[in-house]
Amino acid sequence: MPPAPDASGAEALLKFFKALAHESRLKLLGLVAQREHSVQELAAAVGVSEPTASHHLAMLRDLGLVSRRADGNTHWYGFVPEALSGMARQVLTREGVASLADTPARDSPEAVLANYLGADGRLSGIPAARKKRWVVLAWLARKFEAGRDYPEREVNEVLKQLHDDPATLRREFIGYRMMVRESGVYRRVAEADWKTADDGEPPR
Asked: What is the pLDDT of residues 132-167, one digit of tens each?
């Protein structure tokens, strides 16, 4: 079973309610609460594609509400009722609800990252909105030491741990002047020289 969310207070509550605030995910949770199902059975029952069902199940697994076991090439999903009581003890308390008053502003860097980072620490996507995309890119760029030379292979190794499209991220770094590239070697630029989110779209 995946570990219980380590976020506390408002962040954990938001993650919990976001995962359940979707009709398909609620149906999937109800089905696995009845008995174990394969992803093929669940997709057919809910009327979605298997990749879509897998995506929804991954969100439920991140919360610890759903377990997965492999049987040959088939993955079976089951319900973990203990996760609900654990969630109640963790965040559904007077103190947990009170922490909602301290929820970061919707567009704050903390809120943007919380929205795009999964429980495994990987990005779920690259924001389309310029300011949100800048926040994510800045977080990624800070994974690299300023002034140090990084071969493209090493840049890819770092980025692949966080997202499946390192080529796009490398281009964005160059566009926002967070990195410079010369002969296949990358170097992070001092943050004071980065292109800001308000400077318009970066050059491609």
From this structure: 899 999 999 999 988 889 999 999 999 998 999 999
Are residues 144 and 85 both part of a single domain?
no
In a domain, 126, yes or no: yes
Q: Select from 169, 88, 164 the least CA-distant residue to 136.
A: 169
Concatenated DSSP letters of 114-132: HHHB-TTS-BS---SSHHH
141, 185 contact by CB (below 8 A): no
126, 134 Cβ separation under 8 angstroms: no
Which residue in 46, 51, 57, 48 sits closest to 79, CA to CA? 57
pLDDT digits (tens, 9 = 90+) for 104-130: 555 677 778 878 887 677 888 888 888
Q: Give yes or no: residues 57 and 89 share one domain.
A: yes
